[in-house]
Amino acid sequence: MPSTNAVTGRSVRAVAERTTDLLNALAEEDADAAALARVLRAHGETDPVTSDDVGRMRAAAYRIRAVLAAEDADSAAERINRLLARAHQPRLTDHGGTTHWHVHVDSRDDAPLAEWFLASSCLMLALLLTDRQRPPGGVCAAHGCERVFVDCGSGSPRRYCSRRCATRARVAAHRRTAVPGAAVSRPRT
Ligand SMILES: [Zn+2]
Q1: Residue 125 maps to which CATH number?
Q2: Which ranges carry the Zinc finger CGNR domain (predicted)?
Q3: What is the C-alpha R_g of the chain?
Q4: How far is ligand 1, taken at its centre, from the CA of residue 165, in Å?
Q5: How far does the centroid of ligand 1 lie from the alpha carbon of residue 4, in Å?
């Protein structure tokens, strides 16, 4: 069945999922090279990760999170533009015939991981924003959760990082409204 999201096709969605997983992994205090390599491998990327890469990827993650934390499309666009200003001229690559053709805005196919992470993420966020004319993602609205998400859906804007957080928030909201009435025990007459 044809997708209603003509622009945000499979490759954009794949980068969205990878970016989200990397951002949430990098937000963990104990994120190290091995943990990041595991996340990358889960997305088919086998590049080795060094401890230098971790520090640089954390800095990149900070800037990408700022886009996802933007209140509206205007400020998200402004933040994406700041990242695109540091990106390289777009080019097509198939990594020497090993992948399908896709656009890169990093300097070269073997650019440092952090440069690739920032460049691929900001291009993906730019395409999503263009397609929907709304912020390309957000920070989870569930109490106490700071995980981020990229919104690839075509329905109403997403608010939670996961189904788990959405359910948790719904249950909490239900309790807030249901408990006060239920807790009042009626005096016997
Ligand atoms: Zn959450």
Answers
A1: 1.10.3300.10
A2: 139-176
A3: 20
A4: 5
A5: 27
Average pLDDT over residues 92-100: 91
Cα of 146 vs centre of ligand 1, distance in Å, is 6
For the chain, how many structural domains are there in total?
A: 1
Full-model pTM? 0.85
Cα(167) to ligand 1 centroid in Å equals 10
Could you tell me which residues come within 8 angstroms of residue 36 by beta carbon, excluding any fewer than 6 positions away?
A: 22, 25, 26, 49, 53, 54, 57
Q: Give me the percent of the chain exceeding a pLDDT of 70.
A: 90
Question: What does the pLDDT read at residue 180?
Answer: 59
Say if 5 falls within a structural domain: no
Measured in Å, residue 36 CA sits from the centre of ligand 1 at 20
Residue 79 included in any domain: yes
The answer to whether residue 76 sits within a structural domain is: yes
Range of the domain at 122: 10-183
Residue 83 within any structural domain of the chain:
yes
Q: How far is the CA of 54 from the centre of ligand 1 (A)?
A: 23
CA 175 – ligand 1 centroid, Å:
18
In the block, tokens 């230098």 appear at 52
CA of 82 to the centre of ligand 1 (A): 27
Burial of 168 (0-12, 13-18, 19+ CB in 10 A): middle
The yes-or-no verdict on residue 18 having pLDDT over 80 is yes
